[in-house]
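Dock pyridoxal-5'-phosphate; give full complex structure.
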Amino acid sequence: MKGIFPIDKFERIQTPFYYYDTELLRATLHAINTEVSKHEGFVVHYAVKANANPKVLRVIREAGLGADCVSGGEIEAALKAGFAANKIVYAGVGKSDWEIELGLDNDIFAFNVESIPELEVINELAGQKGKTARIAFRINPDVGAHTHANITTGLAENKFGIAMSDMETVIERAAEMQHVKFVGLHFHIGSQILDMSDFEALCNRVNELQTQLENHRIRVENINVGGGLGIDYQHPNRVSIPDFKAYFDTYAKKLKLRPGQTLHFELGRAVVAQCGSLITRTLYIKEGAHKKFCIVDAGMTDLIRPALYQAYHKIENISSELPMEAYDVVGPICESSDVFAKQIDLNGAHRGDLIAIRSAGAYGEVMASQYNCRKLPQGYASDEI
Ligand SMILES: *Cc1c(COP(=O)(O)O)cnc(C)c1O
């Protein structure tokens, strides 16, 4: 055993695979619950899209979190993992009829609605079932986040949400409809956000909008501020649990909740990223003209974040104690972007060595594809191997 990994057990498992440290996941959930319990009315939903592995979902459900889903498939996965339907929120710009019907049949907590045409369809489908859908409007707060351009969602130019200037119109439309009940406002400004001032900017915007609604005598049951809290990809060991205190304290200090209102959060990455690693085996060390390549059996089909977002993941050779050498760590896929890292230091690597790609618990296994007719990577929890 070198570091935190049970290498002897890994030897028996077909690589590449995802390894989830359930002890760290439980500690992370405990840290969340500890901070949340200090604030009246705070409710946390786990954003299922970050990682829908059934074992991971079960641990999160056991900790008492609700679920935030962005598709019918995710609603099914959440229900199967035992999440209570009345703790499920459902967001997404393009909900199809069967997905809306699934939400209605299960009486989910709320649909986060992103347009008038969608509102009309939900009203109609709810009417056919003799139901009333609880709806929140996702408002685009035009608040920028200091993160990768592909993962900001709260700017006016993004496809998400309803413009602030249309907020009252859509609420009035909903009030005229028979089969929807307006319960809340929903926001989500982006992902991998580490600067608390971005969340502060959202709080200020929510305060403004709440005042505006009060002036029109419109009451809001709950506010949902989405997720987006980032993690430390550079230091997965030293900062294995994100600073949830700073995150929740920011909202407690800056967002002015009205009496009886609940404040909902949808955290994905911050819950699951650090507990997961992609474990892969070194196939070949190739001496290039100017550098060495460490060719591993995992590729962008198993973990696409480096290729898609130029994301950094810490990489370790967990089989070797040899002196450090510089390598490009690359996968076997027929794409030049199939590179996990360039010129990083690894303990001297040989064929057969196990390599851990760290902080891969979020947007890793769920984004795997079968491109090149590859097999999907399996996920294993630390307490089952
Ligand atoms: C992706 C997403 C989240 C979770 O984002 P993280 O950055 O993983 O916390 C929350 N809410 C909505 C609506 C999302 O689309």
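Observed: Residues 133 and 270 are 30 Å apart (CA to CA).
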